[in-house]
Amino acid sequence: MDIILVPGFWLDASSWSEVTPALVAAGHTVHPLTLPGLESVNASRAGIGLRDHIDAVVAAVDGMDGPVVLVGHSGGGAIIHGAVDARPERVARAVYVDSGPLAEGGVINDALPAEGDEIPLPPWDAFEEADLVDLDDGLRAAFRARAIPQPRGVAYDQQHLTDERRFDVPVTVIACEFPSSVLTDWIESGHPYVAELARIRDVGYMDLPTGHWPQFTKPAVLGAVILAAVER
């Protein structure tokens, strides 16, 4: 199976490097992506928006011969959902790593402070304690050293969806910061945060207790959990 890995904010394809061995060993072909504007700290981020990142994932899907699995971490979840909407017939499963599908009109996070066309990685005290679980000082330093400013438009732009076949694509949610039972409780109560997820017909949940960046805090476990989702 071809597995396309979409990183979250401030990260490029290399952020998946410690996650992919389990997938490759199982015979899958992995395609970690570096999205437009994330090529380097010196890359231009002017004019790059959410649709540009979705289009980059769609182009990767179109470059494969058969069905694909899309994996999106954090803000990458909104991006893969846009790609599912664009190519529902090509996606065998969408896997959301501490993330979920973003509904029509939603934005990933327009509260992140921007500097011109880009959003630098904020200071650690801007994050919730749950985000930072298991992210020790060494991992924080390594993350900050590799962090690339995020194009502002990707965080601020509205999601636009057109194809209701997206609700037929099977989904796995890997819950990290809080248990999946919280998500199912929200769905049962009609919480708007999970309104799009609630409309998907085939959803499975897997718990991986850690902070918001399991590719750094528990990469081998994340690889095994993604593998289990792919082979489900």
From TrEMBL:
<dbReference type="InterPro" id="IPR052897">
    <property type="entry name" value="Sec-Metab_Biosynth_Hydrolase"/>
</dbReference>
<feature type="domain" description="AB hydrolase-1">
    <location>
        <begin position="3"/>
        <end position="221"/>
    </location>
</feature>
<dbReference type="GO" id="GO:0003824">
    <property type="term" value="F:catalytic activity"/>
</dbReference>
<dbReference type="InterPro" id="IPR029058">
    <property type="entry name" value="AB_hydrolase_fold"/>
</dbReference>
<dbReference type="InterPro" id="IPR000073">
    <property type="entry name" value="AB_hydrolase_1"/>
</dbReference>
<protein>
    <submittedName>
        <fullName>Pimeloyl-ACP methyl ester carboxylesterase</fullName>
    </submittedName>
</protein>
<dbReference type="Pfam" id="PF12697">
    <property type="entry name" value="Abhydrolase_6"/>
</dbReference>
